Amino acid sequence: MVVTNQFGAVIVAAGRGTRMGTKESKQYLTLAGQPIIIHTLQTFAKLAFISEMVVVVGEHDVARLQQMVSDYQIDKVTAVIAGGTERQHSVWQGIQHMKSEWILVHDGVRPLVTPEAIATCCAAAEQNDGAAVLAVPVKDTIKQVNEQGVIIATPDRKSLWAIQTPQAFQRTILYAAHEQAQKEQFVGTDDAMIVERMGTKVVVAEGEYTNIKITTPDDLPFAELLLQTRQQRQEGEKLV
């Protein structure tokens, strides 16, 4: 996929990660010798079409991440700022610090996203009215269940996709959606949701199943395995 515009990236890493069961926030846990968030930032920083990055973290982690960014020399990070009470509020704060006309929003704890997937998402947004998300088709049968645990519906699996990040938007669209959501005190589960409710078309760009979000203890060793496998494959390709 060819990306024709320059994009800014809002990297959201303000969560505490209680499901991980560790004292340390999940974005700072070590993956292959360095913090998860650093893997994420390095992937975006290497892309020629990424012109700036704003990282949104917890209020008490601003200085800590600023030091990490300096230590790892991630020059494209233009600001490290404190987030809000909800993820949506953190993204809104990040948007305020961006100059780019096109914006990506990405979870800091998705360190295995590939350059190819990021480019696919950006190109899809450029070619489809300014809004696109990465997603993968659902493999399992999904059941809708009521409060009593009784199955009430089985949606057609062919129409179901698991949404990932990054999500790519033209700045004017994302800004307007967040502004409207704030006025109406609406909190969505992702940025696509608040854009959708404005009536804006959001397209799906097919991503990769390896673009996992590190959320629970089982995710970290799986991420280690995926990263190791990816590195071994890349080394093998160099030898061919």
From TrEMBL:
The record marks R19, K26 as: Transition state stabilizer. It catalyses: 2-C-methyl-D-erythritol 4-phosphate + CTP + H(+) = 4-CDP-2-C-methyl-D-erythritol + diphosphate. The record marks R157, K213 as: Positions MEP for the nucleophilic attack. Pathway: Isoprenoid biosynthesis; isopentenyl diphosphate biosynthesis via DXP pathway; isopentenyl diphosphate from 1-deoxy-D-xylulose 5-phosphate: step 2/6. Its EC number is 2.7.7.60. One of its GO terms (molecular function) is 2-C-methyl-D-erythritol 4-phosphate cytidylyltransferase activity. Belongs to the IspD/TarI cytidylyltransferase family. IspD subfamily. Catalyzes the formation of 4-diphosphocytidyl-2-C-methyl-D-erythritol from CTP and 2-C-methyl-D-erythritol 4-phosphate (MEP). This is 2-C-methyl-D-erythritol 4-phosphate cytidylyltransferase. The gene is ispD.
